[in-house]
Design a protein that fits this description.
This protein is an all-beta fold and 124 residues long. Helix content is 0%, strand content 44%. The strands form 2 sheets. Strands 2, 4, 5, 6, 9, 10 and 11 form a 7-stranded mixed β-sheet that branches. The radius of gyration is 13 Å and the shape is globular.
Length: 124
């Protein structure tokens, strides 16, 4: 059962930007931990940006730090991943996931609910 829905993926050239969106049609994300993950073909899934509580600090993977920004719009029940200065190595299927909140930092906790993903391709 799909709990989350991602959108906003596409084909862009290196250096361009995309904003991914994630929503939960059947529940509020406000107080949940939410993470963005990606999986490139033939590679393991990687945690990109995660915020494990409403007040928590956003964790960014080193590979995206300074280029990607995690944000929420609670009034719209949406979570976003703004991706700037995209590189070919950012090409992957991007997923959002949620779980009960925690005090932890990082993308290492177990996320229970996932979307089906949205494809991001960075190519010239």
């Amino acid at each position: 059962q799909v709990q989350l829905v991602e959108s906003g993926g596409g084909l862009v050239q290196p250096g361009e930007s995309l904003t991914l969106s994630c929503t939960a049609p059947e529940f509020s994300l406000d107080y949940f931990a939410v993470g963005w993950f990606r999986q490139a073909s033939g590679k393991e899934r990687e945690g990109v940006a995660c915020k494990n509580s409403r007040e928590g600090t956003v964790y960014y993977a080193d590979s995206v730090k300074g280029r990607f920004t995690f944000s929420r719009n609670e009034s719209k029940n949406m979570v976003y991943l703004q991706m700037n200065s995209l590189k070919p190595e950012d090409t992957a299927t991007y997923y959002c996931a949620s779980s009960l909140p925690s005090s932890g930092y990082g993308c290492y906790q177990q996320y229970d609910d996932w979307g089906l993903g949205t494809q991001v391709t960075v190519s010239s």
